[in-house]
């Protein structure tokens, strides 16, 4: 049986746009960590560093869907490159302001400019959707590959950023990330043969958020993002409390590694059953497996916690792959990049909320108790989607079936009524 991933790259241009997208996507895992280390080192304040990155995250949540709408309307090459250029200018200004120890407000202003960073993962998924719209099996493999790529970038990004900022100079991570983003976008947008055509007329309609079933999915992604955000903060605090703060990065990388491996394996299996049922199963598995880090934290063993995070992470990629597949199914034609960016916006909002809640739990209770936050967030995502599914089924049952139209009393001799046999 041929490898489904080798079949995925049979079309010309797929390898080239994937390489460019991976180069552009790696900085997504670098910018946040780089900014925190850089600002904390130069200004001596983690509170300022956290506030600046939170502001950038909030700006991205607001600006991101509008950037994605322009990409759908005018094309990826025409919009993504200038949008990335503005974001790179913002990163360079941030590094310069930090290096010169400029007033704090300049950091907020500079980092807000990075909100125009295009959703590289969404654009790549839109290309796969364009290329394999009539092949559900390959599209499933493509979505699994993209999720594994996300996990890989968020696994390597923080490690690379931390090394550059500590081994070279505090601004090195931000400068490198900016260079990679611009280079990757240039490579990606140069591959015009695989680019989806612009949808100028379609994108003038209402936002995909108004499409049936779309808003509940974004809310579920919000709860799912809270799992990721809280897990990161709580794990860093737990490792610090154990006297091994430097081990937090490798421990979190194991969670991403588990997710990456599960995503690649999930892509080799043909999807079975309705997508909503599979998503419900994945959310159930995630809610169950997120209890493992909570139990492992009670032992006080960091290696045991690392193993628990590795296993817990295996539910993440299948959940995200299936969820993104549902988003694609609910997004109106021609609005795919905007629809997926809305889902990512939900994730970003959830990550911000989860980080805040996890920090509060660690500060006011304990690092171990902080692991209750991702468990609760995963359970909430499951309950929300289950409730929506039950409501949708009950609504369908209440809709009466339409009776067939009554036969005309005076049928035309050339078109006999259906109830009467044709002569």
UniProtKB/TrEMBL annotation:
<feature type="transmembrane region" description="Helical">
    <location>
        <begin position="279"/>
        <end position="298"/>
    </location>
</feature>
<dbReference type="InterPro" id="IPR011701">
    <property type="entry name" value="MFS"/>
</dbReference>
<feature type="transmembrane region" description="Helical">
    <location>
        <begin position="22"/>
        <end position="40"/>
    </location>
</feature>
<feature type="transmembrane region" description="Helical">
    <location>
        <begin position="79"/>
        <end position="102"/>
    </location>
</feature>
<feature type="transmembrane region" description="Helical">
    <location>
        <begin position="46"/>
        <end position="67"/>
    </location>
</feature>
<feature type="transmembrane region" description="Helical">
    <location>
        <begin position="339"/>
        <end position="359"/>
    </location>
</feature>
<protein>
    <submittedName>
        <fullName>MFS transporter</fullName>
    </submittedName>
</protein>
<feature type="transmembrane region" description="Helical">
    <location>
        <begin position="160"/>
        <end position="188"/>
    </location>
</feature>
<feature type="transmembrane region" description="Helical">
    <location>
        <begin position="371"/>
        <end position="392"/>
    </location>
</feature>
<feature type="transmembrane region" description="Helical">
    <location>
        <begin position="304"/>
        <end position="327"/>
    </location>
</feature>
<feature type="transmembrane region" description="Helical">
    <location>
        <begin position="209"/>
        <end position="228"/>
    </location>
</feature>
<feature type="region of interest" description="Disordered">
    <location>
        <begin position="396"/>
        <end position="423"/>
    </location>
</feature>
<keyword id="KW-0472">Membrane</keyword>
<dbReference type="InterPro" id="IPR036259">
    <property type="entry name" value="MFS_trans_sf"/>
</dbReference>
<feature type="compositionally biased region" description="Pro residues">
    <location>
        <begin position="402"/>
        <end position="414"/>
    </location>
</feature>
<keyword id="KW-1133">Transmembrane helix</keyword>
<feature type="transmembrane region" description="Helical">
    <location>
        <begin position="248"/>
        <end position="267"/>
    </location>
</feature>
<dbReference type="Pfam" id="PF07690">
    <property type="entry name" value="MFS_1"/>
</dbReference>
<keyword id="KW-0812">Transmembrane</keyword>
């Amino acid at each position: 049986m041929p490898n489904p991933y080798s079949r995925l790259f049979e079309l010309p241009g797929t390898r080239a746009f994937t390489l460019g997208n991976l180069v552009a996507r790696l900085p997504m895992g670098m910018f946040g960590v780089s900014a925190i280390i850089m600002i904390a080192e130069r200004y001596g304040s983690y509170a300022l560093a956290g506030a600046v990155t939170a502001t950038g995250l909030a700006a991205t949540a607001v600006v991101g869907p509008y950037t994605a709408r322009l990409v759908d309307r005018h094309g990826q090459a025409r919009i993504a490159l200038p949008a990335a250029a503005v974001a790179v200018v913002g990163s360079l200004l941030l590094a310069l302001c930090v290096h010169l120890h400029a007033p704090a407000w300049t950091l907020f202003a500079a980092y807000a400019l990075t909100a125009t960073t295009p959703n590289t993962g969404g654009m790549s998924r839109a290309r796969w959707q364009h290329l394999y719209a009539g092949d559900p099996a390959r599209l499933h493999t493509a979505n699994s590959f993209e999720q594994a790529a996300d996990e890989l970038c968020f696994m390597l990004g923080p490690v690379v950023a931390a090394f550059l900022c500590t081994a070279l100079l505090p601004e090195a991570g931000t400068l490198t990330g900016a260079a990679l983003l611009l280079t990757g976008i240039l490579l990606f947008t140069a591959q015009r043969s695989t680019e989806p055509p612009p949808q100028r007329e379609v994108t003038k309609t209402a936002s995909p958020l108004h499409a049936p079933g779309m808003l509940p999915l974004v809310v579920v992604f919000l709860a799912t993002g809270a799992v990721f955000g809280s897990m990161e903060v709580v794990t860093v605090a737990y490792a610090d409390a154990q006297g091994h703060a430097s081990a937090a990065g490798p421990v979190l990388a194991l969670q991403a590694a588990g997710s990456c491996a599960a995503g690649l394996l999930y892509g080799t299996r043909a999807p079975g059953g309705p997508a909503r049922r599979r998503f419900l199963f994945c959310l159930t598995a995630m809610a169950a497996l997120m209890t493992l880090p909570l139990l492992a934290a009670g032992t006080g063993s960091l290696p045991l916690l690392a193993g628990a995070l590795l296993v817990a992470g295996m539910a993440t990629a299948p959940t995200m792959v299936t969820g993104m597949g549902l988003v694609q199914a609910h997004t109106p034609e021609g609005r795919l990049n905007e629809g997926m960016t809305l889902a990512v916006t939900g994730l970003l909002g959830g990550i911000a909320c989860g980080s805040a809640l996890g920090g509060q739990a660690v500060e006011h209770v304990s690092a171990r108790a902080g692991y209750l936050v991702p468990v609760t967030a995963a359970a909430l995502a499951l309950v929300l989607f289950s409730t929506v599914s039950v409501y949708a089924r009950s609504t369908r049952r209440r809709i009466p079936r339409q009776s067939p139209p009554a036969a005309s009393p005076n049928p035309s001799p050339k078109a006999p009524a259906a109830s009467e046999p044709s002569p």
